[in-house]
Structure formats: C-alpha cells, structure tokens
Amino acid sequence: MHAPHPPLAPMSRTASIAAAISAITVVGVGLSLSIPLLALEMEARGISSTMIGINTAVSGIATIVVAPFIPRLVRSIGARGLLILGTIVTAASLLAFKAIPSFPLWFPLRFIFGAALCVLFVVSEFWINAVAPPERRGFIMGIYATALSVGAAAGPALLSYLGSEGWTPYVAGAAVLLAGAIPIILANGMAPSIADTSQHGVFTFLRRSPTALIAALVFGAIETSVLSFLPVYGIRLGLPETNASLLLTVAVLGNVVFQIPLGLVSDKVDRRLLLLFCSLLGAMGCFALTLLDVNSFAFLVMVFLATGIVGSLYTVGLAHMGARFHGADLAAANAAFVMLYSVGLIIGPPLAGAGMDAYNPFGFAFVIGGGLAAYALLVFVRLLMRRDGAES
Question: Per-residue DSSP letters for 103-166?
C-alpha cells in the first residue's frame, strides 16, 4: 500500500471537496438530460428500439475499456486537467450527436461520449475519496451521492421544460456540462495527485476488496433494473400508467433521503456490517413487494425504504474502498469500482427482464431480492474469513 496524498489545510480541503462535488452534480444534470434526449432523437428518426438499446449500451462498453487507463492519465495530466478535458469532450460529443445525421457514426460517437463520462466519474470519485478526512469519509460520500441524485433528477425536469426538438436542448445540455468545469478550474492547487504507479489490475482489487467492488456491480444492476422495469411491474400488477410512473419518483426520493444518514452511520460502524445489514433489508423489502397490495400505502413505503437502503450500497462501498487504498492504488481501485458498476448496468436489465418473463410479474422482485441476498451472503462469508481489520 502506498503513502496517502499529503493532507490539505482544513479550509482548502473543504473547498477541494466542494469543487469536486459541485462539478459532478452539474455533470449529473447534463447526463440525465442527454441520455433520454438521445433516445428521443433516435425514436424520432425511426430507429428501432433494439438499435436504441444497443447504441446506449456502447457507453457501458466504453467505460469497461477506458477505465483501466484512467490512473495513468491522472498521473500524466493531473486530476484537475483531466476533469476539465473530460467535461469539454462530453459537451462537444453531445453537440456532435445533433450535428451528425448518419446513425452508424453515432456508435463511435457514443463510445467517445461514454469514455469521457467514465473519466468524469472515476476522477471525481478518486478526488473526493483522496481528499476526504477518514473520520468523515462516509458522510462526505453521502453528500456526493445525494448531490448526484438531485442533479440526476433535475436533468429530465429541464428536458421536459425545453422539449426534445431542435438544437435548444443540445446547446443547453452542453452548456450545463461545461458549467461543471468552472468549480474545477477555480480549484487550482487543490486537486490530489499521484506520484507513484499502481501495479494492480481490476481483478487484483476484486480479490483484495470484493465487498466494496461487488457492491458497485450489485447496485449498478439493481439501479438500471428498477429504472427499466419498476413502472412495468406496477402496470402488470394493475396500476394506471401515471401511478406506475410515480413508483420511480418514490424510488428516487428514497435514494436521495437515505444517502447522508447512512453515510454518517458508516463513519461510526464497520462498513462491512452496514453493507450486510442494507443488503439483507433490501432483499427482504423486495420479497415483501410480492406480498403487498400494489394500491396500498404500504407498497409505496416499501418501495421508498427498499430502494433508499439499497442505494447506500454504492455510497458505503465507495467509502469502504477509500479507507483501504491510497495514491495510485486508490485511483486504480476507483476505476475498477466504476467498471464493475458498468458491468452491473449491462447485466441487470436482461436478468430482471428474464425473471419477469419466467414468473410474470413477480420474477422482477425475486431476481433483485435474490441478487441482494447473494451479495449479503458474500459479505457474511468475508466477515467470517477476515483475519484483521484491513481485510475485505
């Protein structure tokens, strides 16, 4: 393990963390505006749903391909310079989607867009994790996740106001993304740096800290599955379409509300125990959804609690990883974390969809609950196997 980055003064540290969180929040707004915008653009052009899905999946593939190279780029360009560059490329890519009429060219363009987004998330999470004081890391990660969730909720609202036609939403999205570079530009001299080189690959970190990295995979799979199928689940249980869409709003609210409180708790307890507790509660909540009346208030409460608690897997897993690694290893571990999250994005919806087809509609809840139970078992086994406080 390498020596951690020299600590900043308290005020500079706070300003540094605020800059990284502000930047990624703005990026969250731009991202959550751009993804549905691009889907609507393809739909308007008469592109099939299958091709829309394949094109969207290219972003996840880009993350898996590019993430291993990011620690080297941070060492060469610096975290601050790389974030600014990533923001510019992301904004330019979004404008290029509107400017390029040829759909086949959207595939390499989507790869570039996804690669730039990967840079933004890996570097910002490395920045926050590297600068956060150890005793408040969970709390700060909770603020980060809450800010990102709020930003993600603001994007679709902005799109609904602007509409999806013409250049306006593209220019607005690019402007919002570029605004994310402003706090980073102002944070001169506050970014963490990497002086050493990590000799470890993704699978090394997966072996050294499976509890943290598998948390990212499970959360990625569940988050995308819920976004894709929760309204469908509600409709198949008999809800009107408007009420089924409300389920997603309840799920997002749960995710926002729970991040900071559970982040605070994670600073006081063994984070592995908290991950075990949250995954078990989440699994029980998913199974409970199959027993509750979809029209009842209890069903909404269970969606709120289950999605809120499960949302902490990413936050607490990220904080747990940040406590274990430093310097180049932390940057490489962050890249592995985002890679596993992207793998979850790719595998989650097909599994949930297959479950719903096999056992309509309850297979959706059983697949998600089963995934959480399997993760809880992994954490429990790791806790039994631990030799000292640094393992897992």
Answer: GGGHHHHHHHHHHHHHHHHHHHHHHHHHHS-GGGHHHHHHHHHHHHHHHHHHHHHHHHHH-SSS
Cβ-contact 336, 213 below 8 angstroms: yes
How many residues can be counted in the chain? 392
Inter-residue contact 278 to 316 (CB < 8 Å): yes
Compute how many other C-beta atoms are within 10 angstroms of the C-beta atom of residue 196: 12
Q: What superfamily would CATH give domain 202-385? A: MFS general substrate transporter like domains (1.20.1250.20)
Which amino acid would we find at residue 144? Y
Residues 220, 121 contacting (CB under 8 angstroms)? no
Does 358 have pLDDT greater than 50?
yes
Report yes or no: 122 and 338 within 8 Å, Cβ to Cβ: yes
Structure confidence at residue 31 (pLDDT): 78
Average pLDDT rounded to a whole number, residues 141-165? 86
Query: Which phi and psi (to 5°) does residue 277 adopt?
Result: -60, -45
How many other C-beta atoms lie within 10 A of the C-beta of residue 204?
A: 15
SS (H, E, C) 223-234: HHHHHHHHHHHH
Q: Return d(Cα 354, Cα 350) in angstroms, integer.
A: 6
Domains 10-186 and 202-385 equal at CATH topology level: yes
Q: What is the model's pTM?
A: 0.86
pLDDT tens digits, 9-20: 566 888 899 888
